[in-house]
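Let us work through a complete example step by step.
Step 1: write down the sequence.
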Amino acid sequence: MKQLLYKSMSILAVLAVLASCERKPEFSEVTELGCTRNEAVVDAAGGEAIFSIIASGEVCAEVTEGSEWASLSESRWTGDADLCIAFGDNNGRERKADVLLTSGHRKLQLTLIQSGAEDATFHFKEKNVTVPFESGAQTAIFETVIPADEISGTVIYPDGGDWIEEPLADVNADGTFSFAVRENLGDSPRTAIIEFTAKDNVGRQLAARLYVTQGVRGEVETIPLTVAGLRSLSLEYGDIDPQGIIQKPYALTGRVISDDSEGNAAPNENMSVIIQDLTLSSRTVYLQSSEEGEYYGVKLVFESADAMSLDRYDLATISLKGRKLTAGIEPECYTVSGLKAYDIVYSAAGTSADVVLRTKSVNDLCDSDINTILTLTDCSIPITKGAFVPIDNTRSSIINKYPMPLLDKRGNTIYLLTNTTAAWARDGMALPWGSGTVTGIIVNETCDNYEWDSATAAMDSRLADYVTGLGNIGRYQIRPQHRSDIALDGEPFTKILCEWTSFADVKEKPGFTYSTPELRAISPSQDWSSLGPLSGSASGIVPQSKGPAWMGAYWCSGNHADPKLEEYYWQIQFSTADLSLANAPLSVQIAAFNTVGMDVGAPRYWWLKYSSDGENWETLKADSYTGDIVQYTSVGKEWTYSVPDYPKNGSYRQYHCPGAKNMSFTLPVSADLFGKDNVYVRLMPAKDVSGYDAQIPISYDGTKIQNVKRACISYAAVRCNK
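Step 2: predict the structure and record it as tokens.
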């Protein structure tokens, strides 16, 4: 059978050859037809949309039936071309036009979607409602221009149950919507979600949710409360018990000012050195209210992300009875935690116009600003290397956020906080280089990865378990809610007097010297300021060929009999000959970290000293380079700054940092540092103290400095005002 098949195939091949000799060969022409984009979305105002067409032959274009509101610049052409689709104002709802292109046997459809002046409204006027425990009919307002017969409704029960009658009634012509509930025979409130879905004019899915909470028999009337009133609740008057549990039926009303759509509403929580609760940001909101022109805010933490149904700008009323109030004293700030879905008594959507956006400078901040939204003016990010979160992402589990110094025109510093999971944490975009404003929630947070209070830690018996909150990074910080809130695109108000971003810079640019036996690029390369974005096992390391961070490994005498810390330093030298007090203040920026790999023993505490002659030195104390309480350092420290260790394999601690610590220091304006050919800044160990690779938390500064242990810098600069 196989032989017969092979013979038949041979005969057919011969016949094909003979046939080809008898007629002219035919070639199939390949037709090319494509576009750089297949869809464009435009606003309601009339205009034009350009589609770049790629074609190898003749192209025919036509709008499909029902799309006559759009017109084409050409209906027939040959080869590549820009097709212009013109359209007028759309005073109605959104609309879609389809354009069909044909070239030979190929077809291509282009789509133009135009928004309408008449929005496809599709939402409940009040998003959260509370109904009585009794059975009966209830009414809500649903605002939409979509016909009722195109809307589908269903009920979702997050905690189980079945107590809302179905099928749901249609939306009436006046916008009212009726539904019926069964009696709540239980002893706790219950929550359900009524969800409406439909499609708009162009086929996109719309969804709206009404969160319904049903109370229980015997509920007492609530007591209205503002955020300002919340601040006055006390144990003395029976408002709270000794554990901070709210005892009275207060109903707190305010405006939601936070938004977790880009993952930076609030800090996520480190549960251990390798485990994080990544839901905390999504289940936290900040509520703000005003009273007689004063603004106050509170942080609200829900038990789960599903329980938190509030959106930015919502006007919300929250039931507080049974929930925990945590009140900070220094600084004064307030948090309510343990909230459940049914604690949202009422909410209604708002807009940005409902929130007054105040502006302040950094040094004008006060405790009443905490948990409110503000715009900080005349700011810049003074460290221009890396991303907002320049860390080793293979060890990101140890750190939940990154504090980036934010310097204002007066020399005041505050930290801009970015979660490691925020959308802009490491998105491949460079840090903003200019000046401008930053809008966000003013917060009071700690960061153990940046600072660690070893004295408190040594006395804290809880440290047998995992404890956080000992890392003081200042009285105030700012949390942008969106990357667009970081509007630093104006002309810089500072100029750089000297800057080193890599070891290659140190070698090529004069002005950076050292007294240690060596200064060299770290090897292997451990500078984690690569912009990204990163994926998989990528760590963010700057390649050795790019001249990464630099290090010194000798900071004391070998036997430690006489450490002689004053003999070892890094030094920055620069000129202020053309400057005057009009250019004040001077500021110094460094990015530092200790050790790489398994090494431990580099100096923990450092002095920053400055001089105008290289002989007489002034020491920048931890509390002396700013005149206010905003600065992150504590008062009375015997050092200018501390440097954390890199996390060691098998010995992670909450005070380790998987990347450089970025810092900015402002020199006193009164210092005689202007009009000088040479000004000097020295960085030197302040104490014969380092970390220790032990399995106990108090090992943060538990041993002496060890030689051949590496202290590293990945950035250094000096700036002044223009």
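Step 3: interpret the result. Residues 494 and 721 are 4 Å apart (CA to CA).
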